[in-house]
Amino acid sequence: MSHYTYRCFQCNKTYSAEMVEKELMYLCPTCGSANRNQPLTGVLLVDYDFDSLKKKLSREAFLKQRAGKFWLTPELYPLQKPVNNSLMDRIALPATGMPLFTFDGNDFFVMDDTGNPTLSYKDRATSLVVAKALEMGITEIAAASTGNAGSSLAGISARLGIRSHIFVPQNIPLGKRIQIQSFGAAIYIIKGSYDDAFDLSLEISAQKKWYNRNTAYNPLTIEGKKSSAFDIFILSQGKIPDNIFVPVGDGVIIAGIYRGFYDLLKLGWIEKLPRLIALQAKGSDAVCRYMQSKSFSFIEASTIADSISAGAPRNLYHAAHAIEQSGGEAIAISDEDILAAQKTAIQKTGILIEPSCSITFAGYQQYKASGKLKDGETSLLMLTGNGLKDTNSLAKWNDTPEILSYAEWKNHFSKA
């Protein structure tokens, strides 16, 4: 008997772990659907027996753990067999802490995932999905991606010995495409959008019988991304921030963070949920629009922040639930403000970030200016992707430097 079950987010129907995993069920068989250019319905969540876990786990022992190694507490994840610790150590995240920065008189913490094995937050989801694939004896795995999830799957799979297949849109940044190819993954570039890549990957995965890592479609992606909530809890020694600013595309990062803090709340280790502030680009703002109207309409996404570009957020409904339950809100930010924030954030923190996470800096500034931050509250910005993954965005605000000869530079400095 497993220590967890699967439950449908929509109809609340529960399924055994054995049934879901043996039959490779991704969505609820009763109400699940993965229709073209639409959010998923029937997303499966993982439930645990928290009354039993309270007797096995202690807050004090958990806080002494090293952040970045989710497999140290397998009771809190959907794994049925002990993992090979030496093998999993290949994909451990760096325990970099939560550094505090000050800008314009305002203090904020950052959660820096730019130094993860493949330089993005997506390694959190991928690591658990690939660990599960190893447990089930799976040798090939696929995913659709705008770039980061694909490079994550390619890199983590290479470290753990699994063949990966990555479906990407044609506008994938060069750095991310090269990263995927360099890890040895098979890459399929689609003349179309991320939403097209998502739909095609589902069809081909089913045809080829490849395990699919697609965000939200595979319930372990949500579970894997909750590890950041646990790491925040450990790194802050239980003093979690009041506000967390989260970049949102498909909606799985914010849903995962919510599930992590939900688990901590059910264990009785925290007293309340942090407020989750969702940040979206104005050219990819389906979650923002849904929060206002409670209805979804497909609009093809277009934004410089490719990692959060999704016309049909696949985890829309669960993401909206996470925002509501945490007392948060969704804010849309222009590409111009995202780029301006990228320059400021990099030069003030020394952390090289891509546009999808400079949006948290822009959102924090806007939220602070609106007067919504209360005195004494603490805030945390999620930094989810390294700037080297998208050097085109960096080139937009960095001029090409002058090139002079040795003698010309000497002459230059002699006149200075």
For the residues shown, what is the average pLDDT? 96
Catalogue the unreliable spans. none
Order of strands in the sheet with most strands: 4-5-13-10-11-12
Fraction of residues in H or I helices: 25-40%
Q: How many DSSP helices?
A: 17
Rg, nearest Å: 21 Å
Class by alpha and beta content:
alpha/beta
- In whole angstroms, how far apart are the ends? 76 Å
- Order of SSEs: EEHEHHHEEHEHEHEHEHHEHEHHEHHEHH
Number of E-type strands: 13
Note the quaternary state here: single chain
What is the beta-strand fraction?
Answer: 15-25%
User: Shape, please?
Assistant: globular
Please summarize the sheet with the most strands: 6 strands, mixed
Descriptive notes:
- This protein is of the alpha/beta class and 416 residues long.
- Helices cover 40% and strands 16% of the residues.
- The chain has 17 helices and 13 strands.
- It has helices at 17-22, 50-56, 59-63, 85-88, 123-135, 148-160, 174-182, 194-208, 219-225, 227-235, 252-266, 286-293, 316-325, 335-349, 355-369, 391-395, 406-415; strands spanning 4-8, 14-16, 44-48, 100-103, 106-112, 140-144, 163-169, 186-190, 211-212, 243-247, 275-281, 329-333, 379-383.
- It has a 6-stranded mixed β-sheet, sandwiched between helices. The protein has a 4-stranded parallel β-sheet with strand order 8-7-6-9, with helices on both faces. A 3-stranded antiparallel β-sheet has the order 2-1-3.
- Helix 11 links the parallel strand 10 and strand 11 (275-281).
- Helix 5 (123-135) crosses helix 6 (148-160), helix 6 (148-160) packs parallel to helix 7 (174-182) and helix 10 (227-235) crosses helix 11.
- The chain is globular.
- The mean pLDDT is 96.
